[in-house]
Write a structure and sequence with these properties.
globular, mainly alpha, Hypothetical protein af1432, 10 helices, about 60% helix, about 220 residues, single chain
Length: about 220
């Protein structure tokens, strides 16, 4: 996480605010929770690497950076309100630092958009959502590791229920006119993402067994 410290400092510096004491340490600890196998610091690092490709499409870059920092701050696969709780955590942190209400509202909205329940129309939320979903357009090897990691996070869910939830989420993505709303990531990732999703769906439709991978809708299907 040390490599990401500059993104944290730049965002707060651009807002001309000082974050509350221990706020960064708290986030680092959250992303290191033992029940996480995909939604970890490595996911956050990958998000900021991808952000470099699309940052020019952000209207408020510091807000996008903070939304990414907080978007998976609360992650309990047994709950369905992780994004709302992550947004509230961000709201409380930014408010404690004296950040304007309008900025807080935009950051929180971008975090809530990572529920991926609907296509996103607004600029910065679209950037955050695309960055969060960019793993879908990764190489087959990286994509499969992501799917296995999320499946382990839902190890308490039986295969049949898990496959049903994951399949519903993936088919919902395929049914959209576009998975990625930004120009930069759409041009780069749309085609490989659809190929990865179709390939995973083919596996999910096969026999249930230890090799099944997926990400059920039980607590945040992504």
């Amino acid at each position: 996480m040390n490599a990401l410290r500059p993104t944290w400092d730049r965002a707060w510096g651009a807002l001309r605010r000082v974050p509350p004491d221990a706020a960064l340490d708290d986030l680092v600890a959250r992303y290191a929770e033992p029940h996480r196998t995909y939604h970890t610091a490595a996911h956050l690092v990958a998000c900021f690497t991808t952000l470099d490709l699309v940052a020019h499409e952000a209207e408020h870059p510091p807000e996008v950076a903070l939304a990414l920092w907080f978007h998976d701050a609360v992650y309990d696969p047994r709950r369905t309100d992780n994004e709302a709780r992550s947004g509230l955590l961000a709201r409380e942190c930014l408010a404690a630092a004296g950040v304007e209400d309008s900025v807080i509202a935009r950051v929180e909205a971008s975090i809530l958009a990572t529920r991926h329940a609907d296509e996103v129309a607004t600029g910065d939320a679209r950037v955050v959502v695309d960055v969060d979903l960019s793993i879908l357009g990764a190489s087959a090897e990286v994509y499969d590791a992501y799917a296995r990691g999320v499946r382990r996070e839902y190890g308490w869910v039986d295969d049949a229920r898990f496959r049903a939830g994951r399949s519903a989420f993936l088919r919902g993505l395929l049914g959209r006119p576009r998975i990625f709303g930004t120009r930069a990531l759409g041009a780069r990732l749309e085609v490989p993402a659809r190929a990865n999703i179709r390939r995973e769906l083919a596996g999910l439709d096969g026999p249930v067994g230890d090799g099944a991978v997926g990400d059920g809708a039980m607590g945040g299907a992504r």
